[in-house]
Amino acid sequence: MRTTSDCLPCFLRQALGTARRSTTDPARHWQLVGEVGGLLATFDPQLSPPENAIHFYRLIAARTGAADPFAAEKVESNGFARGLEARTGELIRASSDPLRTAIQFAISANVLDYGAQHLLDRDEALAACRQPLTIDHSAALSARLVPGADLLYLADNCGEIVFDRLVVEQLLARGCRVTVAVRSQPIINDATRVDAVACGLDRLCEVIDSGSDAPGTPLALCSPAFRARFASADCVIAKGMGNFESLSDTPAPLFFLFVVKCTTVLAHLRARFPAVGLEIGSPVLLQGDALRGGAAA
Question: Helix H segments across the chain?
Fold first, then answer.
């Protein structure tokens, strides 16, 4: 999907939040947000929001020297999720459909997102994780999860990566081969290899990085090794809005798992699924082909 005018004030909000985490000097906050404002006119509306956003995150990091300004939030989110992991695992294993239940928990955990336009209450979202998905293409996904299927799972944020691990356990139990991809370096509160190792994902499956510092997975910015791995996968499960924004136009066996948290994504989905009652906060399991008029609609 492309960047719209609604993205511009959101970019400024993100820039201010990042500036405040990078320096305590109010004068620097003003200066940095002003510089980001000047960048907006250079952004390409034909690119996805993550491809444009990376420029102001790089600028703030370069000006302040703060390479990981969301480090504290990342630690807190991982701790919060680890505190729920044992009980969540019990609920998943007791379910009549453990994989579906694990996926619903993982989708609900997508509210652990400090870059979103709308910050949703994580306790309410996780408590409501058994509610029906607003878009539910789980049957099409399940059909691809056959023994021996080669899956690439694109992780998103810290905290929710703990719930991703519970999904991976269920995918492996089905006999699938799973590789998890994370960001190559810190960006917002997105998960990196450090977070994957902290939650034990590396003990379950191979963990790779995208080769990009974008808060999504724009293939043009990813490493050749990652692009080759992406192209060879039998199925790609992409968590989070950043991955949706950067891959929604990509012809590939993609399934997107996320909670709708911004008006740009909401409008994009409503235009393609006018009969579905989509709102901010809607949980979605969406087959990529359905965006282009194929398969599950």
Answer: 7-22, 26-40, 49-64, 71-94, 98-108, 122-127, 138-144, 160-173, 193-198, 224-232, 241-247, 263-272
